[in-house]
Amino acid sequence: MKKEKLQGPEQPVLSKAVLEQERKMLLDLGNDITRVRDKNDLLLLFSRRLKRYFYFTHTIVTLIDEKGGTYTPFLLDNEHSPIRTHARYAELVKARFPLNEPFIQAVLQANGPISFLLEAVMDQPGSPVFLKVNYEEGVREILMTKIMMEDKPVGFIHMYTDKPGSFTNEFRSVINGIVPQLSGAVSNILKNEEIYKTEREKSFLLDFSNEIAKVRSKPELQAAIFKVLDKTMHTQLAMIRVIDDDGIHLSMFMCDPTLFGGAKAFEQMSNTRITVEEPYTSKVLASKEGLVFSVAEEIKGGNDYARLWATTGRKNMYSFPLRVGDRNIGTIWMLANKLSKLLLKGICAQISISIANIQANEKLLAYKKQLENENDYLKEQIRTIYNFSEIVGNGAAMQEVYRLISLVAASGTTVLVLGETGTGKELIARAIHNASTRKDKLMVKVNCAALPANLIESELFGHERGAFTGATEKHIGKFELANQSTLFLDEIGELPLEAQAKLLRVIQERELERVGGKQTIRVDVRLIAATNRNLEEAVRAGQFREDLYYRLNVFPIPLPPLRERPEDLEPLANFFVKKYARNAGRKISQIASKAMQQLHSYNWPGNVRELEHMIERSVLLATDGILKDVYIPQKNIPEKQSPAYLVNRSLEEVERSYIIDILKRCHGKISGVGGAAEILQVPGNTLHSKMKKLGITKADYFS
Ligand SMILES: Nc1ncnc2c1ncn2[C@@H]1O[C@H](COP(=O)(O)OP(=O)(O)OP(=O)(O)O)[C@@H](O)[C@H]1O
């Protein structure tokens, strides 16, 4: 060590006047300190007071870093410091000076203020550069004293003069007396700063948390992160990597592409899929509160990434594990000179939750999409496998019908199709049959309403030759015909009570005897019954056996009337236009919107059958390629039809009105003596089919 001029710390003998001076100064300073709001004001007041009594150029306060090892400027005298214009000033005010060098060690070991001639110490090995800089600006001597807090040095007061010898005994004695007060003030400032910083950080975190709570998607999260890093942390995101579902790999989740100015190396790096074992990543993931990598140190250590980091001019790479609870979900990387740990910790916690939410949301959306696709696929499958292609209508009501069909079709369960006349009950029965294992055999249909009461049994169960008058041949009944297939009992509600009892027995026993026969015949028949009647009411009215009702009502499929599924009207109308235009060899491709409106305004008591007939008629009457007119039934049709009324009506309409008229006259009796079929001179069955074709229901002739 070069020879240095050490003054004090021996206690000087002070005159009364000096003591008085010191007391007054301490008092003044005490008052000042209570008024100080800004930390630099403290130093200014201190300098000004002191300058009233002593000569020196300027003063600064440095603080020892928390972790020790260095000290750094804290309070600056921006008014008087001669080095403010020095080229290295900006560097000096931010610098960290090591504590383990002889100059500052001498200060630490001294029991009070200690002064040095700069010339003597500035060139010593390890001496802080501010000594030389001050010397270059004309400063010649420095007086230093420790600031103590709870018996520990926390910093230093530096006082400088351009006139060696300025730091007299009196001066040093006053400084010595002032130090405890100054320490208290510095300590208050530090505490206040800490509180203020914490408050500010908390408020930033609150703002960020509010912002991030609104985030629903990755781009929104990116915007929120970029904003907080830029505005609050004054840094940029280098990268966020998230751990893949396999728990091993990490993929790039987000980065700020502007940070490295589109460097190829970054692109390469971000596209590389790394694992949790990658040395840096594993260190970060294992760390409790993140790691800071010094860019310079990393370059020295041969870290290739660090060369890229250095291009930003920032000193450190901050990396934090992204965690939700105890689970690591990724890592975040930011380049900065200095970042607040508390703030980083809070921000990373929020980012972690947000990423986890977005991932969960993305998974949910993907799952939903997959379910939707599966649903579409299954619907399509149901339609193709079960061949519902001839059934038109895709509205919610029909979807439910298709679902029920697909549930029941493969089983042998008895099905009861319920719905108004013309809603498509037979179509549904066929669809069930076609989707069942019995599809290779024909479905057998019996219309229970169309059979004369005395023939029903024979029709269903067959008869032996000579069983009754007219039974000249053995007759195989529909049940036997439908063995290993499906028997469709249409209009089951019309079955006479006697036949109901027999039917019940066959259903229960799965065996029958032909009328007039002795032999028991086992049958394997799947039953589908349909009715437009309210069977429960019929049971209550004693018209339908309760036990049979329960046997049939195993799996009911209700078919909604057309007026309750208007969404199906247009597809159905278009379907029938195509069908009947093709049948008639006509080129009609669409229905005019006015006609469609008319269709929608009608409430379709005869349901799809009525619509079908109306379209068939309209197609035949159409004059060009667009169906402009539909023939909606007129209400209040006069009882007596005048010839004028018959004008412009189709043959079918006239036929329909005529049959209804006759049925009305016969009080609804179709076949037998005095029945409509007799008057019209056609067999009962023929009249029944005709009525069905023309959509004539009981409502027409009983009204
Ligand atoms: N969804 C539909 N898609 C295509 N055509 C349909 C549809 N529903 C009914 N139809 C047609 O309407 C007409 C009447 O249908 P179906 O005979 O099945 O009705 P229903 O309910 O059995 O009538 P009823 O009670 O009078 O016996 C048939 O020509 C049928 O093809």
TrEMBL record:
<dbReference type="Pfam" id="PF02954">
    <property type="entry name" value="HTH_8"/>
</dbReference>
<keyword id="KW-0547">Nucleotide-binding</keyword>
<dbReference type="InterPro" id="IPR002078">
    <property type="entry name" value="Sigma_54_int"/>
</dbReference>
<dbReference type="InterPro" id="IPR003593">
    <property type="entry name" value="AAA+_ATPase"/>
</dbReference>
<keyword id="KW-0067">ATP-binding</keyword>
<keyword id="KW-0804">Transcription</keyword>
<dbReference type="Pfam" id="PF25601">
    <property type="entry name" value="AAA_lid_14"/>
</dbReference>
<dbReference type="InterPro" id="IPR029016">
    <property type="entry name" value="GAF-like_dom_sf"/>
</dbReference>
<dbReference type="InterPro" id="IPR002197">
    <property type="entry name" value="HTH_Fis"/>
</dbReference>
<dbReference type="GO" id="GO:0043565">
    <property type="term" value="F:sequence-specific DNA binding"/>
</dbReference>
<dbReference type="GO" id="GO:0006355">
    <property type="term" value="P:regulation of DNA-templated transcription"/>
</dbReference>
<keyword id="KW-0805">Transcription regulation</keyword>
<dbReference type="InterPro" id="IPR058031">
    <property type="entry name" value="AAA_lid_NorR"/>
</dbReference>
<dbReference type="Pfam" id="PF00158">
    <property type="entry name" value="Sigma54_activat"/>
</dbReference>
<feature type="domain" description="Sigma-54 factor interaction">
    <location>
        <begin position="391"/>
        <end position="620"/>
    </location>
</feature>
<keyword id="KW-0238">DNA-binding</keyword>
<dbReference type="InterPro" id="IPR025662">
    <property type="entry name" value="Sigma_54_int_dom_ATP-bd_1"/>
</dbReference>
<protein>
    <submittedName>
        <fullName>Transcriptional regulator containing GAF, AAA-type ATPase, and DNA-binding Fis domains</fullName>
    </submittedName>
</protein>
<dbReference type="InterPro" id="IPR009057">
    <property type="entry name" value="Homeodomain-like_sf"/>
</dbReference>
<dbReference type="GO" id="GO:0005524">
    <property type="term" value="F:ATP binding"/>
</dbReference>
<dbReference type="InterPro" id="IPR027417">
    <property type="entry name" value="P-loop_NTPase"/>
</dbReference>
<dbReference type="InterPro" id="IPR025944">
    <property type="entry name" value="Sigma_54_int_dom_CS"/>
</dbReference>
